[in-house]
Design a protein that fits this description.
Elements: H1 2-9, E1 13-21, E2 28-34, E3 37-42, H2 48-57, H3 69-80, E4 83-97, H4 98-103, E5 131-143, E6 148-150
Parallel strand pairs: 3-5
Antiparallel strand pairs: 1-2, 1-4, 2-3, 4-5, 5-6
Length: 156
């Protein structure tokens, strides 16, 4: 099943919603679990120019911080590279047991769990069939609320 799925998915383009960084210095972002899968995304897109432009637009410099909570949220999410959506290429796929995957997450990975509790297994599947997919994605573009960044490798 993994080989057949890999043949169909690896190298294909994908769009996902809500990329989150687990820690400020982490080189990986995550797409929370939804519809049977979650994803790891290599945070390789440079948003330095866009962040500088956003700071100018919000009148932020070394002496002055954001003037509102919305401005603070905009800068914080831009610095953390938390994006509303991303597009990229599936590099690898992994099949994992649903129950043990979510039990074994370290505390910082709680962002992968949907709000409201752990994912519920499908009632008509056996325990062996209750799985989730992890996709490893190489991003080509990412959309923040106030800007979009592209990989240097991607076509406009």
């Amino acid at each position: 099943m993994i080989d057949e799925t890999a043949k169909r998915l690896v190298g294909k383009s994908i769009k996902e919603n809500r990329l989150l960084r687990l820690a400020p210095n982490s080189q990986t972002g995550v797409i929370p679990y939804m519809n049977g899968h979650y994803a790891n995304v290599a945070v390789t897109l440079s948003a330095e120019r866009e962040l500088a432009d956003l700071q100018v637009a919000l009148l932020i410099d070394e002496e002055h911080s954001a003037l509102s909570l919305a401005g603070m949220d905009a800068i914080s999410s831009a610095e953390m590279q938390d994006y509303l959506s991303i597009g990229g290429t599936i590099q690898r796929i992994h099949l994992e047991a649903l129950l043990t995957r979510f039990i074994a997450f370290p505390d910082p990975a709680i962002a992968l769990v949907p709000l409201g509790g752990l994912p519920q297994p499908t009632a008509n599947l056996t325990l062996l069939e209750q799985t989730c997919w992890r996709l490893d994605i190489v991003p080509q573009w990412a959309h923040h609320r106030y800007f979009t960044v592209r990989s240097t490798d991607s076509q406009p």
